[in-house]
Amino acid sequence: MPVLLERIAHVPAPAPGHGGTTPADLLEHALDLEVLYGPHKNLDWLELGERVSYADLAEAVAGQLGDDSGVDMLVTVTALPDCQARLLPGALLAIRLGGMPLVLGVNDQGAAGPFTALRLAANHLASGRFRRAAVVLMEQSTHPPEASYTPPPRAGAVVLVLGTDAGRPMDGLSVRRIPPAERRPTPRAGHLQPWYELARRHAGQPAADLAVTDRDDELGYDCRVRFTAPTTDRLVPALTLEARP
Asked: Does residue 108 register a pLDDT over 80?
């Protein structure tokens, strides 16, 4: 059974607290981090940051999908822990979508996370057990300063809806391990930029084939996927979005 991309959308960061996260939740989590890593030099990163959590992003995604989306499988993707620990974005989003979708979470896989999530969703859809899956990619920028990590410039999300009835076929999905000798780790700010670009180009050129490749030298992944326009008369060349630090 072919797996088809029905829609893709970039969801910008909402206002802080959009999903129910309070300043007290954020401060509590910041103090919990001190137990593990020692006192923060200051809380400027929290007080002056966006203060948008994954729960806030999940609420914004729910508004994008709508309550009658028909989604019966949900896969959330995050590369780093949230800036609060009280609200779980997958559970919050599942409630907003109505029904009882299967909820899976992919965490801490860097650039490979979105591709792993797509593979999970595609395998479940191809089995015939599910009709429609939403893959929700999220990143947030409220992190304590770390010399080894550059946070993304802003929070945001990308939602991809996969189904089996209509849309553009997904193929060429692969996640390859990069041999250690070939890795050239370079700091990068977040992991969703190629997916933001994919959503933008899809909106501007809906008749084009699209492909995404991404490479994470720090974790050692080389990933790619292709979405083929559902027409035999393609006048627009394929667009390949490649993220290389």
From this structure: yes
Nearest to residue 180, comparing CAs of 217, 224, 222? 217
Residue 59's closest CA among 151, 138, 161, 116?
A: 138
Chain centroid offset of residue 62 CA: 14
Domains and CATH numbers, the chain: 4-243 (3.40.47)
Whole-angstrom distance, CA of residue 180 vs CA of residue 218:
10
165 burial class (0-12, 13-18, 19+ CB within 10 angstroms)? exposed
124 confidence band (pLDDT: 50, 70, 90): very high
Q: What is the mean pLDDT of residues 158-177?
A: 92
| φ and ψ at residue 93, rounded to 5 degrees | -70, -40
Residue 235 in this model has a pLDDT that exceeds 80: no
Angle at 240 between CA 237 and CA 244, to 5 degrees: 160
Residue length of the chain = 245
Q: What is the DSSP-derived secondary structure letter of residue 133?
A: E
- This prediction's pTM: 0.90
pLDDT recorded at residue 68: 64
Alpha helices in 22-129 (DSSP H): 23-37, 44-47, 54-65, 89-97, 113-126
Residue position matching structure tokens 């948008």: 52
Per DSSP, helices labelled H in 66-192 are 89-97, 113-126
For the beta carbon of residue 77, count every other beta carbon within 10 angstroms: 27
Angle at 213 between CA 212 and CA 215, to 5 degrees: 145
Q: SS3 letters for 42-69? A: CCHHHHCCCCCCHHHHHHHHHHHHCCCC
